[in-house]
Amino acid sequence: MTRAEKTATIEALKEKLSGVEYFYLADSSTLTVEQINKFRGMCFEKGVEMKVVKNTLIKKALEAASGEKNYEELHQALKGHTAILFTETANAPAKLIKEFRKDGEKPALKAAYIESDVYIGDDQLEALANLKSKEDLLAEVISLLQSPAKNVIGSLKSGGQTIAGLLKALEERAA
């Protein structure tokens, strides 16, 4: 790779890193070409962008893009072969890795950057897979907000039937 190609790769990664809130670093070192291609296909289907880049280039891009973000903690994860996974949904790559690993033990999670929080190590995979997306959280909030209104309406409807029943009983007694 020439110096110009390295500079272009670093610049492209820097732009990508400054524009995303979530990305994962994964170890794909023992995967065969067939397995890597299968994993790339799964990534494409789920809307996850996968790039395999040299660690030194990732490190330089992280340093150049850091600004307000705390990418320094990610440097310890940059050993061995690294695949970087970009996503719009925080838990998508974790779920993808879990699904793919039903057949083996790789790719292993090296680190994840989720809205300024850094998760280091493969033991964090379960926690990351269980993260709720913004859409899920909004749906929960809306259902919680609707719940009291539904209870009030239900009570009013049942109360109306009770009052109607009492009035009917009183009417029958008077007759």
UniProtKB/TrEMBL annotation:
<dbReference type="Pfam" id="PF00466">
    <property type="entry name" value="Ribosomal_L10"/>
</dbReference>
<protein>
    <recommendedName>
        <fullName>Large ribosomal subunit protein uL10</fullName>
    </recommendedName>
</protein>
<keyword id="KW-0694">RNA-binding</keyword>
<comment type="subunit">
    <text>Part of the ribosomal stalk of the 50S ribosomal subunit. The N-terminus interacts with L11 and the large rRNA to form the base of the stalk. The C-terminus forms an elongated spine to which L12 dimers bind in a sequential fashion forming a multimeric L10(L12)X complex.</text>
</comment>
<keyword id="KW-0689">Ribosomal protein</keyword>
<dbReference type="GO" id="GO:0005840">
    <property type="term" value="C:ribosome"/>
</dbReference>
<dbReference type="InterPro" id="IPR001790">
    <property type="entry name" value="Ribosomal_uL10"/>
</dbReference>
<dbReference type="InterPro" id="IPR047865">
    <property type="entry name" value="Ribosomal_uL10_bac_type"/>
</dbReference>
<dbReference type="GO" id="GO:0070180">
    <property type="term" value="F:large ribosomal subunit rRNA binding"/>
</dbReference>
<keyword id="KW-0699">rRNA-binding</keyword>
<keyword id="KW-0687">Ribonucleoprotein</keyword>
<dbReference type="GO" id="GO:1990904">
    <property type="term" value="C:ribonucleoprotein complex"/>
</dbReference>
<dbReference type="InterPro" id="IPR043141">
    <property type="entry name" value="Ribosomal_uL10-like_sf"/>
</dbReference>
<comment type="function">
    <text>Forms part of the ribosomal stalk, playing a central role in the interaction of the ribosome with GTP-bound translation factors.</text>
</comment>
<dbReference type="GO" id="GO:0006412">
    <property type="term" value="P:translation"/>
</dbReference>
<dbReference type="InterPro" id="IPR022973">
    <property type="entry name" value="Ribosomal_uL10_bac"/>
</dbReference>
<comment type="similarity">
    <text>Belongs to the universal ribosomal protein uL10 family.</text>
</comment>
